[in-house]
């Protein structure tokens, strides 16, 4: 959430930001409600003062009649105070709903507009391959080599769930090992996070844990939810805590399963592993000083590029347009891998993203830092980035490395964990 003082002093700027991001939030109404609440609060404090004066005067009454009069006056003042409190509670609830709906401010270089206004800012080292044979998608490749069982997953848990089998299961584990080893070498603290989190943590990170618009699986009769990403658990790890300045920047990487309802998702673009209800992901997360976050954001983007350059996957990086930013993101870069089996002639599909959320999440989660020798504390900045979403990385590997004889070459960086150079070949 935004700084309330900033909103009250810059309502036009905040309203324009909401419009650029396609968010309906009546900022002027919020400012009006806050003003009314402050006025009513002053009236409540005055009524409390008067009630205290009357209460003290009851013992000084000359007779019973005067005593009863003063008691009645006190009751009237308390009733007026209670009525004012009910009024301020209603106004505060309305203001709070508007406040929580406001997205983060936006980086001035972010493209303004909808998804198609996004700007390409870089390409990977690997060129898009020109195939000399008809390309097939990852679903067909998986069927040929018994890699993924979608039907079995549907029988067990419903559509959108699946079994990874044989080399596909080994590829998932290899991608985790490859990515975690790489990130540890870059100074990240490795973690395996819980797959559940409380409502308050999801809300603090910026997810909607319950209600008709949620994409979250909630646990009945409990305030726990299955996490959609380790951003939730890593971001909530220091909720309510104060870090020392010397600890920052603090970089964590976490492995978790991710669960998403993906309500409304359908069509060929979502075929196979591209849009599923459960997958494994390695997530990056950082807590930084405010003046470190932009540099860290570029660093996260560079790391994602290095991971996919290492895998030999062609990709492009997109500076996400304002209308396609999530609420907490100040700026977001998407890495889209080339998937030759997607669409008629191949398409780019998002495989990672990284966002600078500035102090939007830390204000909600109350994560602060202290400077030795100074009074008070300040909000940290938070950043997240997908190092690898296994399901989509598998699509890119299977489709880009397919061969004319039906085999699939294993990326060189993964071979030590797979134990062979090709899938579908008896030669190791």
From TrEMBL:
What InterPro entries does the record tag this protein with? aa-tRNA-synt_IIb, aa-tRNA-synth_II, aa-tRNA-synth_II/BPL/LPL, Ser-tRNA-ligase_type_1, Ser-tRNA-synth_1_N, SerRS_1_N_sf, SerRS_core, tRNA-bd_arm
UniProt subcellular location: Cytoplasm
Site: Important for serine binding. Where?
386
Reaction catalysed by this chain?
Answer: tRNA(Sec) + L-serine + ATP = L-seryl-tRNA(Sec) + AMP + diphosphate + H(+); tRNA(Ser) + L-serine + ATP = L-seryl-tRNA(Ser) + AMP + diphosphate + H(+)
Please state the Enzyme Commission number of this protein: 6.1.1.11
Q: Which domain of life is it from?
A: Bacteria
**Binding-site list for L-serine:** 229-231, 260, 283, 384, 386
Q: Which residues form a coiled coil?
A: none
Residue ranges with Basic and acidic residues bias: 61-86
User: Which PANTHER family does the UniProt entry name for this protein?
Assistant: SERYL-TRNA SYNTHETASE
Quaternary structure and interacting proteins, as annotated: Homodimer. The tRNA molecule binds across the dimer.
Q: Family membership, please give it.
A: Belongs to the class-II aminoacyl-tRNA synthetase family. Type-1 seryl-tRNA synthetase subfamily.
Q: What is this protein called?
A: Serine--tRNA ligase
């Amino acid at each position: 959430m935004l700084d309330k003082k900033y909103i009250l002093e810059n309502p036009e700027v905040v309203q324009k930001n909401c419009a650029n991001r396609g968010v309906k939030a009546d900022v002027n109404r919020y400012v009006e409600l806050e003003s009314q609440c402050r006025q009513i609060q002053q009236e409540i404090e005055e009524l409390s003062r008067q009630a205290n004066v009357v209460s003290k005067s009851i013992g000084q009454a000359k007779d019973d009649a005067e005593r009863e009069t003063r008691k009645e006056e006190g009751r009237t003042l308390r009733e007026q105070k209670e009525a004012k409190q009910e009024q301020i509670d209603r106004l505060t609830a309305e203001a709070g709903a508007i406040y929580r709906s406001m997205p983060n401010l936006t980086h001035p270089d972010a493209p303004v507009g909808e998804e198609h206004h996004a700007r390409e800012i870089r390409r990977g080292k690997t060129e898009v391959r020109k195939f000399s044979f008809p390309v097939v998608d990852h679903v067909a490749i998986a069927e040929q080599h018994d890699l993924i069982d979608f039907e079995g997953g549907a029988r067990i848990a419903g559509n959108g769930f699946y079994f990874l089998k044989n080399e596909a299961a080994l590829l998932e584990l290899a991608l985790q090992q490859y990515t975690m080893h790489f990130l540890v070498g870059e100074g990240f603290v490795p973690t395996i996070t819980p797959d559940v989190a409380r409502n308050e943590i999801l809300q603090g990170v910026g997810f909607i844990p319950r209600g008709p618009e949620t994409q979250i699986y909630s646990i009945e009769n409990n305030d726990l939810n299955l996490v959609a990403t380790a951003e939730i658990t890593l971001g909530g790890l220091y909720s309510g805590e104060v870090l020392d300045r010397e600890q920052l920047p603090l970089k964590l990487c976490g492995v978790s399963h991710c669960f998403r309802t993906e309500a409304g998702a359908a069509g060929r673009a979502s075929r196979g592993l591209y849009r599923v209800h459960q997958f494994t992901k390695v997530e990056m997360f950082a807590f930084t000083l405010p003046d470190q976050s932009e540099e860290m954001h570029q660093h996260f983007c560079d790391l994602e590029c290095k991971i996919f350059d290492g895998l030999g996957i062609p990709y492009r990086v997109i500076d996400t347009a304002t209308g396609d930013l999530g609420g907490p993101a100040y700026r977001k870069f998407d890495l889209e891998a080339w998937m030759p089996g997607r669409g008629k002639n191949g398409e780019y599909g998002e495989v990672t993203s990284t966002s600078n959320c500035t102090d939007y999440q830390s204000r909600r989660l109350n994560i602060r830092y202290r400077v030795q020798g100074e009074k008070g504390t300040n909000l940290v900045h938070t950043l997240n980035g997908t190092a690898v979403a296994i399901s989509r990385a598998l699509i890119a590997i299977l489709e880009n490395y397919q061969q004319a004889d039906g085999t699939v070459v294993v990326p060189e960086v993964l071979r030590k964990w797979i134990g062979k150079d090709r899938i579908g070949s008896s030669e190791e």
